[in-house]
Amino acid sequence: MPTVSAPYEAMFIVPSSIEEERINAILDRAQKVVSDAGGTVVEAKIWDKRRLAYEIGNSREGYYLYVSFNSAPDVPVELNRVLGLTEEVVRARIFRQDEDAPPIPSPRQEAPPVTETAVEPEPTPEPEPQPEAEAEAAPEKTEE
Q1: Which of 14, 17, 80, 82 has the most CB atoms around its CB within 10 Å?
Q2: In the predicted model, is pLDDT for residue 120 greater than 80?
Q3: Looking at per-residue confidence, does 113 or 90 come out higher?
């Protein structure tokens, strides 16, 4: 019976105090777990260092690591186990991708260049006439 492959995304956080070599080793280990189990890694990258919403394991900042892969349903279970046993990983989540969902954008992508266009200033509206005084509005009676 052929194995059904599904797309998955793994996101995990390591403290910012970890050396870059160790971060790369953790990312390589995650890719190796997927590959050894028969999955294919689509994308793997270190996003960037960010402030965490709350303190996790005495860390207020951490590096976000991202792995997108296609595999059988048992591979995410094994990857989650390996990441949970990795001492430096303070948080790990693995999600099955929805095929209809748009891809996750990379953090802090540069915005496309803005083309300058001449903008004409809005014309100032003419002031509304002030209501005339009541005395001027009513004609005066003259005695004849």
Answers
A1: 14
A2: no
A3: 90
Q: Using CA of residue 32, residue 72, residue 79, residue 50, what is the dihedral sign?
A: positive
Contact call for residues 64 and 50 (beta carbons, < 8 A): yes
Confidence band of 58 (pLDDT split at 50, 70, 90): confident
132 is a domain residue: no
Count of the separate structural domains present in the chain: 1
Q: What is the 3-state secondary structure (H, E, C) of 46-67?
A: EEEEEEEEEEECCEEEEEEEEE
Q: What is the CATH number of the domain that holds 52?
A: 3.30.70.60
Closest CA to 89 of 68, 59, 69, 50: 59
Check pLDDT > 90 for residue 30. yes
Amino acid in the structure at residue 50: R
Inter-CA distances, 1 with 4, 69, 75, 113, Å: 9, 21, 17, 51
Q: Is residue 107 part of a domain?
A: no
Domain span at 28: 6-96
Structure tokens belonging to residue 123 = 């014309």
User: Does residue 81 lie in a domain region?
Assistant: yes
Model confidence pTM above 0.90: no
